[in-house]
Amino acid sequence: MKEAIGSSLLLNIALVFIGIISAILISSIAYSKAFKAKNVIIETIKNYNGDCDFENGDSCFYEIEAKLLDMGYSSNITHSCSTDSGEPVYGRTEGSVMPLDGHVYCIYKYTLCDEKTEVSGDDVVNKCSEDSSVSYYYKVVTFMHFDIPLIGSFLEFEVSGETPAFYSRIVNVKN
């Protein structure tokens, strides 16, 4: 009874330790790739001053897709974008316009007004008044993805960020 711990127990402890360290490294790599993809999208939208037409595929959209392709951001993600947050501009939702070969990320547009008016009818809709200054910003959501067969689709997590506000109409500015 010189050895209190057998070699098989030590081997199991070493394998568990190596597995935990590997999982931490893999998750940090996946998070950094999703974080970098989010930043690339936000910076490209900022470079175009928020004038990106994602539905019709303008140069802003193609620049984002090219940059994501260069950095190796995964396009085989099965996650879809939620529709309860802002006005969806780009993403895989019901009735979406996202191309089949594009990368999976979600972009939402939020409009901010100084003053709002209510339009009556069947639904109450808030619209910006003519005298208010209008600004908008985008929320970008990318996904962490683990390319593991069987359980990879269950391990998709969101990474989100927002652009600064873009102003489209400013009135009543005093000198």
Main attributes of the structure:
175 residues; alpha+beta; 5-stranded antiparallel β-sheet; two-stranded antiparallel ribbon; 2 helices; 7 strands
Distance linking N and C termini = 91 Å
Give the assembly state of these chains. single chain
Radius of gyration: 23 Å
Unreliable runs, pLDDT <50, ≥5 residues? none
How many β-strands, per DSSP?
7
State the helical fraction.
25-40%
Give a written overview of the molecule.
- The protein is an alpha+beta fold and about 180 residues long.
- The protein has one domain.
- Helix content is about 30%, strand content about 25%.
- It is built from two helices and seven strands; from the N terminus they run ααβββββββ.
- It has helices at about 5-45, 60-70, and strands at about 85-90, 105-115, 115-120, 125-130, 135-145, 155-160, 165-170.
- The strands form two sheets. Strands 1, 2, 5, 6 and 7 form a five-stranded antiparallel sheet that branches.
- β3 (about 115-120) and β4 form a beta hairpin.
- α1 (about 5-45) packs antiparallel against α2 (about 60-70).
- The protein is elongated, with a radius of gyration of 23 Å.
- The model has no long low-confidence stretch (mean pLDDT about 75).
